[in-house]
């Protein structure tokens, strides 16, 4: 075990002149989310005007503050206080499940068949397995509105592509390792594409901008091509082999 | 641009990369939206200060040069940061001071002479519609800039300018000691981070004693440094938030200092984080230039940072706009 892992949690680590990294957990678990969301909310209230940004992730919360309004020592003590009597946000474990209607098809999910072979399942079984789980959003990153969701069923655990695609179409639904996601914009990407959702994931005109937030519960709902098109889904097939 | 109709400059020649930048986009990093803002905060802040603008006013970040602007009315401007051989109607433009630009005059940035990024501020500030609370231009995300779509300047673009509100701004010229010679070897202050102890002893010695060279793989996301191969006992972490200036070390052992357009989360171990001023300094380095990483104390760096902010008359920098 490394020395870092042996140290007690939670702990507050240096993250530059205007930031502290609060490390709450050692490994990824759904139960982390209630704690991280609770700390995020408490930081917003406690830091007030001195808060510059917050970046929650799987096991951590990065807190960025204005060093003119709050010294790093004051910020550190404030975080210590918040951690002292922190209770997890229970609402994050309840609430509605967001549904992402998804058309699973080799024309828009070019890795569907390869994933099935890799998993030793039929394409139908892969779809059922992927759509069967209510996932949690662990973090957003990579691109605006890109939500890392998990945990994917172990049977679908497939490595990333050796060579990432240059252009993954917007709304592609993808898996890699124990995670799943949908691409909010056209970007390069190395995840395995299973299909496409019809829902807009990032919209600068929507309140909150991103459809998904850390802690949300999400389910992919298989829809037929006709319903997908009726919901405004883009059926443009991917180029063969790419 | 509903409220503002005042014309400022027209772009005659765009050059490789000219971006509108305010202080940055804050409060939305949890959505995967990066910070943006000026790669050299120092030069940007001085340009705005000299133009009489408050902290945060949008200014133009001109990288490399190759940009020609035509003033469409009389404007008060200031250029700070890199010396990109700027001229006004062919005559050398004085840098780090307030200058009047008359209607029809051509402001031209040619090529890097000292540093990489020049900042053009205009009294009243450039005006654009904010996107997610900011006009900071991030090309990769398609956010901000003059058109709100994250576009760099193109020929024929017209840049609006706000009403100048400064009533005799404090100083019109930066003192000599405030101006950088970016060709001098850069000593970059780094605050050691939580994983610093995971690097081997030899690697730590090398990290802070080797002469690092700025690679040509350098942009607004990050700057790769080449030198001795650093070894860390951990190859990767669970992805977590990354602050400005974080120096991450991927398994190839060559550090990457992350700048304004970095991805919001990442999983490589880090030596620590450059201070904002050190990140600014690095952003002015050309490929091939030598830099040194210097382990620094929080107290000293904070005092230096506060002196900088006081010198550009900034009462506060926070701008949290949660969604």
From TrEMBL, chain B:
Domain Carboxyltransferase, chain residue ranges per copy: 30-308
Gene3D superfamilies given in the database record: Cyclophilin-like (2.40.100.10)
Keywords for this protein: ATP-binding, Hydrolase, Nucleotide-binding
Name assigned to this protein: Biotin-dependent carboxyltransferase family protein
Species for this entry: Billgrantia campisalis
């Amino acid at each position: 075990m490394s020395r870092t892992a042996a140290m007690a949690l939670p702990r507050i680590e240096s993250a530059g002149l205007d930031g502290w990294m609060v490390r709450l957990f050692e490994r990824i678990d759904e139960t982390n989310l209630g704690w991280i969301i609770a700390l995020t909310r408490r930081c917003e209230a406690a830091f007030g005007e001195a808060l510059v940004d917050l970046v929650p992730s799987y096991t951590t919360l990065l807190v960025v503050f204005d060093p003119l309004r709050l010294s790093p020592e004051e910020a550190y003590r404030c975080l210590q206080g918040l951690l002292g009597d922190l209770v997890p946000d229970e609402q994050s474990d309840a609430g509605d499940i967001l549904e992402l209607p998804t058309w699973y098809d080799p024309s828009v999910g070019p890795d569907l068949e390869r994933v099935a072979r890799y998993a030793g399942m039929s394409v139908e079984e892969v779809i059922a397995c992927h759509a069967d789980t209510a996932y949690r959003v662990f973090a957003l990153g990579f691109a605006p509105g890109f939500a890392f969701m998990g945990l994917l069923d172990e049977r679908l655990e497939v490595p990333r592509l050796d060579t990432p695609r240059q252009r993954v179409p917007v709304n592609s639904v993808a898996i890699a390792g124990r995670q799943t996601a949908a691409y909010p914009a056209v970007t390069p990407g190395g995840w395995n594409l299973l299909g496409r959702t019809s829902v807009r994931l990032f919209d600068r005109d929507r309140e909150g901008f991103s459809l998904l937030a850390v802690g949300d519960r999400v389910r992919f709902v298989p829809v037929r091509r006709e319903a997908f098109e009726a919901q405004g889904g883009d059926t443009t097939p991917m180029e063969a082999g790419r | 641009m509903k409220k503002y109709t005042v014309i400022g400059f027209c772009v005659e020649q765009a050059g490789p990369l000219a971006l509108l930048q305010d202080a940055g986009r804050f409060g939305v990093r949890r959505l995967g939206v990066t910070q943006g803002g000026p790669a050299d905060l120092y030069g940007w802040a001085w340009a705005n200060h000299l133009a009489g603008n408050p902290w945060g006013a949008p200014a133009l970040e001109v990288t490399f040069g190759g940009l020609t602007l035509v003033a469409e009315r009389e404007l008060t401007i200031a250029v700070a940061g890199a010396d990109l051989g700027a001229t006004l109607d062919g005559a050398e433009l004085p840098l780090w001071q307030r200058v009047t630009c008359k209607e029809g005059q051509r402001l031209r940035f040619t090529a890097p002479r000292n540093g990489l990024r020049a900042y053009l501020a205009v009294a009243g500030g450039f005006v654009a519609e904010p996107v997610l609370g900011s006009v900071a231009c991030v090309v990769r995300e398609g956010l901000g800039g003059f058109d709100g779509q994250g576009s760099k300047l193109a020929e024929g673009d017209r840049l609006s300018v706000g009403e100048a509100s400064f009533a005799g701004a404090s100083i019109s010229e930066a003192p000599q000691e405030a101006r950088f010679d970016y060709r001098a070897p850069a000593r970059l202050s780094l605050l050691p981070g939580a994983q610093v102890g995971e690097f081997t002893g030899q690697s730590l010695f090398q990290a802070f004693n080797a002469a690092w060279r700025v690679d040509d793989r350098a942009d607004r996301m990050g700057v790769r440094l080449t030198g001795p191969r650093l070894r860390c006992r951990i190859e990767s972490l669970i992805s977590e938030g990354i602050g400005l200036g974080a120096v991450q070390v991927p398994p190839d052992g060559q550090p990457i200092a992350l700048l304004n357009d970095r991805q919001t989360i990442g999983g490589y171990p880090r030596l620590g984080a450059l201070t904002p001023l050190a990140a600014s300094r690095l952003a002015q380095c050309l490929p091939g230039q030598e830099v040194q990483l210097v382990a620094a104390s929080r107290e000293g760096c904070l005092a230096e940072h506060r002196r900088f902010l006081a010198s550009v008359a900034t009462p506060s920098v926070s701008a949290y706009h949660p969604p």
